[in-house]
Amino acid sequence: MKDNVLLHRLKEPGPKRILALDGGGIRGLVTIGYLARIESLLRRRYQKPDLVLSDYFDLVGGTSTGAILATLLATGRTVDDLREMYFTLGREAFRPRKSWFGPLGRVIGAKFDEKPLENLLKEHLGQRTLDSADVKVGLVIIIKRADTGSVWVVLNVPGHRFYEMNREMLLWEIVRSSTAAPIFFRPKFLPDVGEGEEAVFVDGAVSMHNNPALQLLMVATLQGYAIRWPLGENKLFLCSIGTGSFTRLASKDAIKKFSNLHWLAMLATQLMKDSCELNETIMQWISSSPTARDIDRQIGSLSEDHFAGKPLVSYLRYNIELERASLDHIGLRYSAREVEKLKNMSEVKNISELDRIGSVAAEKQVFEEHFPIVFDRSVGI
């Protein structure tokens, strides 16, 4: 019965709406600022003060911290619920792991103890499974299986190849797998992912999908994922939200002296940034978007380029550069040192400021007309 309710929502005719949420640790509070603004605008549009985002979006998904947010939204939580949880997350989940070796133990092992995070996920998700009737919409969680090197796109939609094998997986364990960021938390070991097979997972951001927008579009439209929504500017709407972007820079003289450790730190950040930028480039190339930005000086915003000759999807991308100039542009003043601290995905002292940045950025960037009337439907509203 629970499968039938979800399938009815996903399979009924009409335009569909997708929400994709990036990874970024405690910077998920920036995402929450955007979500709060969207929730508020939609409540006002429909004159429904108790509207939640699972009433509006048909498919939600995320990577890492985005997986936490997407899963909570999929179970009908308000954005205030998310904000409250993240303030608790900051206080409890990012505690340095205790070790007999003292600080050295956090160099040779995980920086943080995963137990507080797991306890918090259990508190909010309980024993709900992937096929739980409490999951109101299509849900996608991106995780990386470390022992096979494969990306797992975990999906709650009946009919795809691995649904029966995965449907009884606990939601909190899937989300914990997606947040098992190497260095920060230990990998998540699952003793049975189907047919008695053991597996070890790490953060879904250890892939090309820290920004999961393109992957969610694939889930929504490719035959193998069993949703199979039609493409079209007035048929498919995708809203993608980041956690704050930035570039790690070093002087030429500093780079000449880089050790292997310096390169490891630099490369990880650069690869994640480049994959996100490629994702945005492709999405702007195939879409109609009022939020399209200039990708670079060579190709601009791609507003005159359409991969298929016409837009295949309506697309929004909300994010804020965590750089002094960008923050100053929206009226927030920080020193260079303060801005550098804001980029840290695990610095709990940033909680209040990240919350403020997300709220202010959303007020400046998110407008009701970004959500086309053609996508208004009666489901949940």
Q: According to CATH, what is the class?
A: Alpha Beta
In total, the number of domains comes to 1
N-to-C series of helices and strands: HEHHEHHHHEEHHEEHEHHEEHHH
Overall morphology? globular
Can you say what the CATH homologous superfamily is? Cytosolic phospholipase A2 catalytic domain
State the helix count. 15
Helix/strand layout:
Layout: H1 2-11, E1 16-21, H2 28-46, H3 53-56, E2 59-63, H4 65-74, H5 79-92, H6 105-108, H7 115-125, E3 138-145, E4 150-155, H8 163-166, H9 171-178, E5 188-190, E6 199-203, H10 213-221, E7 236-241, H11 252-256, H12 260-285, E8 287-288, E9 313-318, H13 324-329, H14 336-342, H15 351-365
Parallel strand pairs: 1-2, 1-7, 2-3, 7-9, 8-9
Antiparallel strand pairs: 3-4, 3-6, 5-6
Entry keywords:
single chain, 381 residues, alpha/beta, Cytosolic phospholipase A2 catalytic domain, nine-stranded mixed β-sheet, 15 helices, 9 strands
Task: Describe the protein.
Helix content is 40%, strand content 12%. It has helices at 2-11, 28-46, 53-56, 65-74, 79-92, 105-108, 115-125, 163-166, 171-178, 213-221, 252-256, 260-285, 324-329, 336-342, 351-365, and strands at 16-21, 59-63, 138-145, 150-155, 188-190, 199-203, 236-241, 287-288, 313-318. Strands 1, 2, 3, 4, 5, 6, 7, 8 and 9 form a nine-stranded mixed sheet that branches. Strand 5 and strand 6 form a beta hairpin. Helix 2 packs antiparallel against helix 5 and helix 4 runs antiparallel to helix 9.
